[in-house]
Amino acid sequence: MNTEHESPDQMLAQFRAGQSEAGNRLLRRYEPWLKLMARQQLQSRFQAKFDASDVVQQALLEAVRDFPQFRGQTEGEFIAWLRRILAHVLAHEVRRYAGTMKRDLDREVSMEQELAHTSRRLGDMVPGPGTSPSRKMMEGEQQAMLAAMLERLPEDYREVLVLRHLDGLSHDEIAARMGRNAGAVRMLWVRALARLREEVDKAGVSFTWRP
After folding, report:
1. Dist. CA 69–CA 75, nearest whole Å
2. Is the separation of the CB atoms in 164 and 189 below 8 Å?
3. Which of 91-100, 102-111, 157-166, 173-182 is least confident?
């Protein structure tokens, strides 16, 4: 069976019908998205202590464990569920780092809100037109696709795109962060965006790019 072009809703339906491997395929598809979300939370505060890959692997383990209890029917519900799991894992790591294991629900809610904000910024990075089906898809499946494309880019390309589009930094601010001059950062951003467009073209999807 060719599963490459399955939609998340199709995989959810298959999982509901008893095909457990469909749930595993869905989780694997969203692994780069989870990693991108985790990196954004860790980069400014805890990157030296926590590794995004380790956090994501723990989140996936918890998702696999709890997937049979997931009652959502849509991709949007699935993404919100993944965000809650990732927020829980991140909050646990923060507690461990702080030397306390007392659960802080307010912190988890705050982290989930920050993850949702990052997710929206990712969706805004290459918006589809209006409220068309492609724009709605961008809320989920195409976010996962874009995260996977970013993961395949050279590290400096990925960093400049994330700092510019997800963190909303100016070229001058990015230059200070990356230890380069603003002109070099602008050229790096142009090359990175061109490379990302190549990845998009290879994937055969259509995005309307925001300058």
Report:
1. 16
2. yes
3. 102-111
| Confidence (pLDDT) at 67 | 87
Please, are residues 185 and 161 in contact by the beta-carbon 8 Å criterion?
no
**Helix pair angle (141-152, 182-203), 10° resolution:** 120
Q: Are 117 and 105 in contact (CB under 8 A)?
A: no
CATH 1.10.3720.10 fits 153-204, yes or no: no
Q: What is the pTM of this model?
A: 0.77
Q: Which residues, other chains included, contact 211 with Cβ-Cβ below 8 Å and sequence gap of 6+?
A: none
* Rounded-to-10 torsion of CA 63, 37, 33, 130: 120
Q: What's the rounded Cα separation, in Å, for the pair 147 and 144?
A: 5
Q: Is the pLDDT of residue 190 over 90?
A: yes
Residue 199, pLDDT score: 86
Sign of CA dihedral 8, 125, 112, 43: positive
Q: Which two tokens stand for residue 119?
A: 């997710």
Residues of the chain with CATH 1.10.10.10: 153-204
